[in-house]
């Protein structure tokens, strides 16, 4: 059962990477709290499915198709959200996920740039689009999506690890800079999360093996991450900024 955060009722929440997996679950969880949600992604059909699910349950949501490495597309997403729902109170920059293992000796310059754009530059561009309005209004909560791969070496490719480590510093730097303006910035760093994509590429015996490497002896779920996002966005964490929450089943290396 999800916790209740009454202060999120009526707030405008924009989630990138909102078409499936963690982002889609996060959109649904915010909507269940009474928030008005914009789900941003590149897959129109998947976004429409998320929005239909939310509105079918009495919630408020819109879908915006956008490439979050494109500043103009992000500005369009901001304008549409403000026109239909209002100014964004909570920004969840969750797009990314280019961690497929590649030996560093085989990592091309093209792939390096692609991963950094997808996972790090996209977060910067997304935040740059919505941060000025939050600063002007004197309030806002931003949540970035890092990864356990950005906290310690992993099987993910080098560019992915570097990008996600960069997201941790981006979060800390911005939190220090914009805290005086009433804007909080925090990060989530999930470990092995059982999204449809992960489960499709991981045989059951591998799932069991990976689960066994975590002290809580299970894979994480999209709900685990989404409910952490609710907590970070809510007034329950009004004096919390610049932190990275390891949603990792106890498998943490500081």
Q: Summarize the amount of helix as a percent range.
A: 40-55%
Query: Strand sequence of the main sheet, in spatial order?
Result: 3-2-1-4-5-6-7
Radius of gyration: 17 Å
Average predicted confidence as pLDDT: 92
Q: Assess the beta-strand content as a share of residues.
A: 15-25%
Please tally the helical runs, counting DSSP H or I stretches of 4 or more residues.
8
Query: Low-confidence stretches at least 5 residues in length (pLDDT < 50)?
Result: none
The profile of the biggest β sheet is:
7 strands, parallel
Distance between the termini: 30 Å
Structural class: alpha/beta
- Strand runs, count: 7
Shape: globular
Pattern of helices and strands: EHEHEHEHEHEHHHE
Key words describing this protein structure:
15% strand; 7-stranded parallel beta sheet; 254 residues; SDR_fam; oxidoreductase; 45% helix; 8 helices; single chain; oxidoreductase activity; alpha/beta
């Amino acid at each position: 059962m999800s916790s209740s955060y009454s202060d999120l009722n009526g707030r405008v929440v924009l989630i990138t990477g909102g078409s499936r997996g963690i982002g889609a679950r996060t959109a649904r969880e915010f909507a269940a709290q009474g928030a008005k949600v914009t789900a941003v992604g590149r897959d129109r059909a998947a976004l429409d499915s998320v929005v239909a699910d939310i509105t079918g349950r009495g919630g408020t949501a819109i879908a915006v198709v956008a490439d979050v490495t494109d500043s103009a597309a992000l500005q369009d997403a901001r304008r549409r959200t403000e026109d239909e729902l209002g100014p964004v109170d909570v920004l969840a920059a969750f797009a990314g996920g280019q961690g497929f293992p590649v030996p560093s000796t085989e990592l091309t310059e093209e792939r390096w740039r692609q991963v950094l754009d997808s996972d790090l530059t996209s977060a910067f561009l997304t935040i740059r689009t919505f941060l000025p309005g939050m600063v002007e209004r004197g309030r806002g909560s931003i949540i970035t999506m890092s990864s356990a791969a950005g906290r310690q070496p992993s099987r993910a490719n080098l560019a992915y690890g570097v990008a996600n480590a960069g997201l941790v510093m981006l979060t800390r730097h911005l939190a220090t800079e914009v805290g005086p303006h009433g804007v909080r910035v925090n990060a989530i760093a999930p470990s092995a999360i059982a999204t449809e994509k992960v489960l499709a590429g991981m045989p059951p015996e591998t799932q069991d093996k990976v689960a066994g490497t975590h002290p809580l002896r299970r894979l994480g779920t999209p709900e685990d991450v989404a409910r952490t996002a609710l907590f970070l966005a809510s007034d329950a964490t009004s004096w919390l900024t610049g932190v990275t929450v390891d949603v990792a089943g106890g498998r943490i290396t500081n």
